[in-house]
């Protein structure tokens, strides 16, 4: 077995009592002593701090940067303005998903692509092997950067104490380059929790400094202070918010249209996989991703089979208790004709056939001021 | 972290404990097991009157992240289940040896409890498997 990769915060996670697990080849905290439920609730009600340094960062620079990324991603990169970010996906010729990602536009010759940790090598191979004769320089900066996410209703207040940049002037899915705790950083108003918050990218050597300062200014240790939150809370937070996780709702065998991500597929632009997605759209989707709530007692888990009228019709992509909603929820693929709110489904949970019902997504939506 | 292992119980390698009174065994999961699972949110229990052989799967304890099957360490007939856990599954974390007993079973072979691990043996088993 090859040695697990570590983020620059590995020692700090251990000191904080993080329970470390192998996550896609990375040694990461799945939870800290407070536990996943408290970490989840604290992020919803106050603030949570997440180490996402394992994510990959690729810079695309040069005159044809926008043209290149537009050809490889489903969303319309030409619509971005300087300082704006965009959720998107790499698709193959057949429309299946190589990965989902964020595209950041610094200016018309510099873009940053942020990809998933477990797929970074695959994505790098994909990006570098799909160049034409565009004038671009590709840089895999994944090992140079840390990424720290502060999320929750108090995230703005906490992060603002560490920078002179007016953070509230950064709109959702926008970013700025500035000093954060005196360190050069990319400060992005994005996240994966369904809450307001920021993701801070900086040189990895400053990861510990930034992390500890955020804990300190966030009142770590107090009942309503910030809490470090592990991968388990990150997953339940994104699930409640109805966000896709690569390898679950989207994958090598799933198209973004099936996963309800038609909104990031701009079929009027010319990208790799566009024709397959256009064809799938024209012919009509055979299966669709839906959200469900358990009606019987019990928790559907990933890969549980879904039945309707005694027939096996699909499977659960992500299933879990939802700590904030206090319900057992999940997402599943079902045939398009059954993909409607109120549809009753049956889920095989380790041999028990349990009732569930299709409900609207997202399960959770924060109140915006 | 030191594991809490009361000295008046029998233990299994599946991290369960048994307390015997008048031929009836109360069964629960150990402190080590609840700690490894994390926040328990759901307990699926057997039914009164169910009969099992030792090591049969009789239910499950679920945390946010994981499912752990409950194996009965001893065979017999279930005489009582802890219905309180339906409403307060978190007591498995808070009081695994007390309020969070899972079920009671009338042992068909009381020797099965005696053959389980002693507290010392369980502690040694944990230290070998950490």
Tell me the strand percentage band of chain B.
25-35%
CATH topology of chain B: OB fold (Dihydrolipoamide Acetyltransferase, E2P)
**What is the chain-wise order of helices and strands of chain B?**
EEEHEEEEEHHEHH
- By DSSP (H or I, 4+ residues per run), the number of helices of chain B equals 5
What gyration radius of chain A follows from the Cα positions, in whole Å?
A: 21 Å
Strand order of the largest sheet of chain B: 1-2-3-9-8-5
Shape of chain B: globular
Would you identify the CATH H-level superfamily of chain B? RNA polymerase II/Efflux pump adaptor protein, barrel-sandwich hybrid domain
Order of SSEs of chain A, N→C? HEEHEEHEEEHEEHEEEHEHHEEEEEE
Kindly give the count of domains of chain B.
1
Strand order of the largest sheet of chain A: 10-11-12-9-3-13
Q: Please indicate the percent range of residues of chain A in DSSP E strands (runs of 2 or more).
A: 25-35%
- Summed up, the helix count of chain A is 8
In the CATH hierarchy, the architecture of the largest domain in chain A is 2-Layer Sandwich
CATH C-level name of the largest domain in chain A: Alpha Beta
CATH H-level superfamily title of the largest domain in chain A: Probable tRNA modification gtpase trme, domain 1
Write down the overall geometry of chain A.
globular
């Amino acid at each position: 077995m090859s040695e697990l990769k570590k983020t620059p915060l590995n020692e700090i996670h251990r000191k904080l009592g993080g329970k470390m697990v192998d996550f896609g080849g990375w040694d990461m905290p799945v939870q800290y002593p407070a536990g996943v439920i408290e970490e989840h609730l604290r992020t919803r009600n106050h603030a949570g701090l997440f180490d996402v340094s394992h994510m990959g960062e690729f810079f695309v620079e040069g005159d044809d940067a926008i043209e290149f990324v537009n050809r490889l991603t489903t969303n319309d990169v030409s619509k971005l303005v300087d300082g704006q970010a965009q959720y998107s996906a790499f698709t193959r010729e057949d429309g299946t998903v190589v990965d989902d990602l964020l595209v950041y536009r610094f200016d018309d010759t510099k873009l940053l692509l942020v990809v998933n940790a477990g797929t970074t090598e695959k994505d790098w191979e994909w990006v570098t092997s799909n160049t034409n004769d565009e004038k671009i320089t590709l840089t895999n900066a994944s090992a140079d950067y840390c990424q720290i996410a502060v999320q929750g209703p108090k995230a703005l207040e906490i992060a603002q104490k560490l920078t002179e940049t007016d953070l509230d002037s950064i709109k959702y899915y926008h970013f700025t380059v500035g000093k954060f705790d005196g360190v050069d950083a990319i400060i992005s108003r994005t996240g994966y929790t369904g809450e307001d918050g920021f993701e801070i990218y900086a040189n990895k050597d400053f990861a510990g400094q930034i992390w500890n300062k955020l804990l300190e200014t966030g009142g770590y240790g107090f009942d309503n202070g910030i809490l470090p939150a592990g991968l388990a809370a990150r997953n339940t937070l994104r699930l409640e918010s109805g966000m896709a996780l690569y390898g679950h709702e989207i994958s090598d065998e799933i198209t973004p249209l099936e996963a309800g991500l038609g909104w990031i597929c701009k079929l009027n632009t010319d990208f790799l996989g566009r024709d397959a997605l256009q064809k799938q759209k024209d012919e009509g989707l055979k299966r669709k991703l839906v959200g469900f709530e358990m009606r019987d007692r019990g928790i559907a888990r990933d890969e549980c089979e879904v039945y309707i009228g005694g027939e096996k019709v699909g499977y659960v992509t992500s299933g879990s208790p939802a700590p904030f909603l206090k319900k057992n929820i999940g997402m599943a693929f079902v045939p398009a004709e059954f993909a409607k709110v109120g549809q009753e489904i049956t889920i095989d949970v380790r041999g028990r056939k349990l009732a569930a019902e299709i409900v609207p997504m997202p399960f959770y939506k924060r109140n915006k001021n | 972290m030191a594991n809490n292992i009361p000295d008046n119980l029998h233990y299994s390698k599946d991290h369960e404990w048994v307390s015997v009174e008048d031929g009836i065994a109360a069964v629960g999961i150990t402190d080590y097991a609840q700690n490894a699972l994390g926040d328990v949110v759901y307990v699926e229990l057997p039914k009164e009157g169910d009969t099992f052989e030792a090591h049969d799967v009789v239910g499950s304890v679920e945390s946010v992240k994981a499912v752990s099957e409950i194996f009965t360490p001893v065979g017999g007939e279930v005489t009582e289940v802890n219905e309180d856990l339906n409403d307060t599954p978190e007591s498995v974390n808070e009081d695994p040896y007390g309020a969070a007993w899972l079920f009671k079973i009338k042992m068909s072979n009381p020797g099965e409890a005696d053959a389980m691990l002693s507290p010392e043996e369980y502690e040694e088993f944990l230290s070998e498997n950490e």
